[in-house]
Recover the amino acids of this structure.
């Protein structure tokens, strides 16, 4: 079979044979070369994660938190696509999605001015699901969708640029959503991961993502009684309260039905220092609370909040959480409105305290690739706000 036009096959430089990027066997062969075939807990975890249908997702204890996380990602991706447009990027955007998982962000890419996305992940099963999802989106869009390439690779150990179909591939936007902390297992892995994300970004391009807020981890760990904290939907366990090491400082993270594996502390400072080596400057670092406050008033983003059910209505006949006190913050706002307007029937959108405790562990960030000669400085104040998102929907 002639594979010459098949994007998933690549000519091998030595013998002219074509090698499939997404091929699991080829990935394992490369893997044995880089790490002596050590079993990878993270890959195994994500490979065996079942795909859940909409009905199952709606019943999840973290239904609104997951929608809220999707809102943050959508707004972040859209914001930096708009910036690229206004900063002179007229033709379509070329993007890299590192740790794309099953392709949860494919529809977000499809909504923008995007020409091509390279999707890559460590978990071969996730890449297969991502590819299938892209195929059905393409069919639904009658072919009018961005081009895509799919690569199974460990971005913390392999050079991604060796695996692109086009050896000269450049990007305008690189997205790494809920992934970068896995690479902080060691300094060399974090370096490789960030190099993969930044070395093919053109000047003026952006590297955007979401990750665990190490300051918040520290705060909760210090307050904990037995080096663990959490609630009915998430838990984090450290082995001690020792000062965080820059790399390889591990904890176990569990999130109801979706995550259960080791993660590594990734501080803003270390991320920033590594990114700097690749010509990147931090332009945004926001807790999810702060990110919400910054964007929820924008009409398009506010509509999106409602459309994707990123917030839960309060009052509600069937609240997602039954824990007493979980909606006290929303009740207080509604009580205030009723005191001012006794005839009113207020309704707000928010998250339960239980879901928010998990969602508020994260931050959104963005780096810009600047000219080495450029001495532009960006002031990115520390963002410690962690108020529960709340939107008054009706009075
Ligand atoms: C929490 S999921 C996020 C998936 C997707 N980005 C999203 O937001 O829906 C983390 C993903 O990172 C991937 N991952 C973890 N370490 C990786 C690595 N070293 N290289 C590539 N992908 C990695 C996992 O396989 C998993 O799909």
């Amino acid at each position: 079979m002639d594979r010459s036009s098949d994007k998933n096959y690549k000519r091998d430089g030595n013998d002219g044979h074509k090698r499939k990027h997404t091929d699991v066997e080829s990935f394992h062969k490369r893997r044995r070369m880089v790490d002596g075939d050590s079993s990878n807990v993270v890959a195994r975890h994500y490979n065996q994660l079942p795909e859940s249908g909409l009905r199952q997702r709606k019943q999840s204890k973290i239904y609104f938190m997951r929608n809220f996380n999707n809102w943050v990602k959508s707004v972040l991706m859209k914001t930096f696509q708009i910036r690229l447009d206004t900063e002179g990027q007229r033709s379509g955007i070329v993007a890299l999605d590192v740790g794309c998982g099953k392709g949860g962000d494919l529809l977000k890419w499809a909504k923008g001015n995007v020409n091509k996305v390279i999707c890559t992940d460590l978990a071969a099963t996730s890449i297969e699901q991502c590819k299938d999802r892209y195929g059905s989106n393409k069919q639904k869009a009658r072919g009018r969708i961005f081009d895509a390439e799919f690569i199974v690779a460990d971005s913390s150990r392999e050079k991604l640029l060796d695996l692109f179909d086009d050896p000269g591939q450049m990007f305008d936007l690189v997205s790494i959503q809920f992934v970068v902390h896995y690479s902080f297992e060691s300094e060399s892995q974090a370096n490789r991961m960030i190099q993969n994300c930044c070395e093919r970004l053109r000047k003026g391009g952006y590297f955007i993502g979401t990750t665990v807020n190490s300051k918040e981890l520290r705060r909760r760990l210090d307050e904990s009684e037995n080096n663990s904290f959490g609630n009915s939907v998430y838990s984090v366990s450290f082995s001690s309260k020792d000062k965080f090491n820059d790399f390889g400082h591990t904890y176990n993270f569990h999130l109801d039905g979706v995550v259960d594996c080791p993660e590594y502390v990734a501080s803003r400072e270390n991320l920033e220092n590594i990114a700097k080596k690749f010509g990147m400057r931090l332009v945004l670092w926001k807790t999810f609370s702060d990110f919400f406050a910054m964007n929820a008033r924008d009409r398009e983003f506010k509509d999106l909040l409602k459309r994707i059910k990123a917030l839960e209505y309060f009052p509600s006949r069937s609240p997602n959480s039954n824990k007493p006190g979980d909606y006290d913050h929303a009740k207080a706002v509604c009580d205030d409105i009723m005191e001012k307007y006794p005839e009113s029937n207020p309704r707000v959108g928010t998250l339960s305290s239980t879901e928010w405790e998990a969602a508020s562990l994260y931050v959104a960030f963005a780096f810009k690739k600047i000219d080495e000669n450029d001495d532009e400085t960006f002031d990115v104040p520390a963002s410690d706000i962690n108020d529960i998102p709340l939107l008054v929907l009706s009075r």
About this structure: The pocket of S-adenosylmethionine is lined by residues 42, 46, 99-101, 104, 121-123, 126, 154-156, 177-179, 182-183 (CB under 6 Å).
